[in-house]
Amino acid sequence: MPTKSKLPLFPLPEPQPQPQPQPLRSSLVPMAISFANATIFSKPSLFLQRSTLAFCLRFSSFSTSSATVQFHAHKKWRQPVTSSLVELGGLKISREEIVKDDPTNNVPDSIFSKLGMQLHRRDQHPLGILKNAIYDYFDTNYPNKFDKFDNLCPIVSVKANFDDVLVPADHISRSYNDTYYVDSQTVLRCHTSAHQAELLSKGHTHFLVTGDVYRRDSIDSTHYPVFHQMEGVRVFAPADWDGSGIDATSYAAEDLKKCLEGLARHLFGGVEMRWIDTYFPFTSPSFELEIFFQEEWLEVLGCGVMEQEILKRSGRMDNVAWAFGLGLERLAMVLFDIPDIRLFWTMDERFTSQFSKGQLGVKFKPFSKYPPCYKDMSFWISDSFTENNLCEVVRGIAGDLVEEVKLIDNFTNKKGMTSHCYRIAYRSMERSLTDEEINDLQWKVREQVESKLKVVLR
Ligand code: DAH
Asked: Residues in domain Aminoacyl-transfer RNA synthetases class-II family profile (predicted)?
């Protein structure tokens, strides 16, 4: 498992030296394996390090219909993209509205190029197959009950992404180091929970939202800055729990657990399961479901009884609700034996042809093992250095040819200067890379790391 301090569902932005407290998690319970873009929300608020944010927040709101957003000078280091118009949630959005040379914008072209790909809507893709299998479960057990959304626009307001689901103002997930901001009031959603409040306000009481979500992150075989989640919400009215002999919250929690245990059995068969108490800003009580699969405890999802405040603000005073969120990649990697998260994005037929509609859990047969090539790079960091920024630079140059960026040495000298040595693993899943190609990539990485991250190469 990753040696960096990764949280159960999703990772921390920077290596954290101290062990992180796990609220309510019993220290006697062995940790489940932690991988594939999991939750940062299972932490209470952590203060943002504002000094490291070289961004002045200015007021401006994003309007998807606005054509007035100005395109500023093209940043030299950005790679050209092929298409500059993308369709999102039924709207056409131009690159200039998303990638802006503005201090309140940190969306690179490498991320813009992923918008609108919607892997979860492809029936032959492992993520689409998994989504459909989850739909099948809900359709069978709750016929015509759950409304399904898989085409909601991933560009959302800060309010929808954070405020409406009660993410504290100082929570680390709000930082520019963790989240892609289009402007100070607009982000690429970092979780599908961003749609909870709006759908509740519109009157939906049973719904599933599937979508691509975006997070600035480190690079390894289980982390990718774009991944996919499914959110589920079920609202109860007093008539549901009246006469059950238990209070509304317990009633919702029991129903939630029953529903999700059934889902886990539907996907994984007769596995051993356990519930772990945890923390999410949007639920109370909050739980994680883990299953014992292939000799390890695997975190499957986060969930809980929705905070009453969310319901109240959506005009649902008298109701209770449960909610869950799960990462499709992490489950698909296990169910289909997919060893590297980049594979979900490959167009290589040797990958795509192995999966077909409705076939959950067909085991992926690796078609190649091209050798990795390692390049080390040492530099003196500055105060504002973050690993996520480094990874963004590397991905911007090498794209999916970078497999891992790993801190292998870290020391501070007598003068108080800190040096980091990172090892970059380059490997294509599709072909052999030439020395020349890799040297060229590494050269560009070195150049941009120095110019963009204000570090001094050693
Ligand atoms: N939004 C959480 C995340 O991205 C996942 C989640 C946890 C969603 C609990 C929920 C929930 O709706 O109740 O990590």
From this structure: 211-366
Cα dist. 326→332, 425, 429 in Å? 11, 29, 27
Are β-strands 226-236 and 206-214 bridged in parallel, bridged antiparallel, or unpaired?
A: antiparallel
pTM value is 0.85
Handedness of CA 160, 143, 116, 87 (dihedral sign): negative
pLDDT digits (tens, 9 = 90+) for 73-96: 334 344 444 578 899 988 899 999
DSSP conformation letters of 248-264: HHHHHHHHHHHHHHHHH
Q: 9 CB less than 6 Å from ligand 1?
A: yes
41 lines ligand 1 (CB under 6 A): yes
Three-class DSSP labels, 350-411: HHHCCCCCCCCCCCCCCCCCCCCEEEEEEEECCCCCCHHHHHHHHHHHHHHHEEEEEEEEEE
Q: Please tell me the distance from the alpha carbon of residue 80 to that of residue 95, in angstroms, as a whole number.
A: 11
Ligand 1: nearest atom to the Cα of 42: 14
From the CA of 193, how far away is ligand 1's center (Å)? 6
Confidence of residue 32 (pLDDT cuts 50, 70, 90): low
DSSP letters along 89-132, please? TTEEEEHHHHS-SSTT----HHHHTTTT--GGG-TTSHHHHHHH
Report the run of H or E that residue 412 belongs to, with start and end: strand 402-412
Residue 210, strand partner residues: 230
- Coil vs helix vs strand at 451: helix
Note the pLDDT tens digit of each residue in 269-286.
Answer: 989 999 999 999 999 999
Helices 328-335, 126-141: inter-axial angle, 10-degree rounding: 100
CA distance to 36, 114, 327, 341, per residue, from 223 (Å): 5, 15, 12, 7
Cα distances (angstroms) measured from residue 154 to each of 29, 56, 180, 195, 210: 36, 24, 11, 10, 10
Closest CA to 311 of 271, 287, 283: 283
- d(CA 207, ligand 1 centre) in Å: 14
* Gap between the Cα atoms of 77 and 31, Å rounded: 41
